[in-house]
Design goal:
This protein is an all-alpha fold. It folds into two domains: 125 residues, no CATH class; 32 residues. Helix 1 runs antiparallel to helix 2 and helix 2 runs parallel beside helix 5. The longest helix is centred in the N-terminal third of the chain and has 45 residues. The two termini are 47 Å apart.
Length: 174
């Protein structure tokens, strides 16, 4: 019981440090990166390097990235993916915009790609408080899975050296 209490205290402290100190700092850095990318897009528009439509789509994307930056999580991405799969109009809209951005000027593609990377990292930061608890659960599970796969690769007599013999009587005897 004392160990469980200690673990809960450590996890609470981790959550406080991550969500209260580290994550806001990362998010601010990512937000500033998006602002810098938006400034680059505006500079390209001023120099007439990109078309008005390219600029509008790119600026829309960057503004959306700034808006969702602090709240986007893995579950939000999963929800979005399902919505796109289930709504043909939304799927067409997303594909059309993505195709346009992907066929645009090299600088537009570069800026859109960097913005996508920034939001991806922000999404990981937003779920980062779960890192330690998930690692604490999944690493042992993976280790157990590996052990199970190794045990079942043994013959029955070899496996019974490590696993207690069954207490039931087999239906078919040799």
């Amino acid at each position: 019981m004392t160990t469980l209490l200690a673990i809960l205290i450590v996890l609470t402290f981790w959550h406080f440090v991550w969500d209260g100190i580290l994550a806001p700092s990362y998010r601010a850095d990512y937000r500033f990166r998006l602002f810098a990318l938006r400034d680059q897009a505006r500079e390209l528009k001023i120099q007439s390097t990109i078309t008005g439509l390219e600029f509008r789509y790119l600026e829309d994307s960057l503004n959306t990235a700034v808006i969702v930056l602090s709240s986007l999580t893995i579950t939000g991405l999963i929800s979005f993916r399902r919505a796109v799969q289930n709504d043909p109009k939304l799927k067409h809209y997303v594909e059309e915009r993505m195709a346009f951005l992907n066929s645009s000027h090299d600088e537009v593609r570069r800026i859109a790609g960097e913005a996508s990377d920034v939001v991806y990292f922000a999404c990981n930061v937003n779920g980062g408080a779960w890192l330690i608890p998930l690692v604490a659960v999944f690493v042992p599970i993976q280790a157990l899975h590996l052990a199970v796969s190794r045990i079942i690769a043994l013959t029955e007599s070899e496996a019974l050296r490590f696993v207690p013999a069954p207490t039931y009587q087999p239906l078919i005897s040799n």
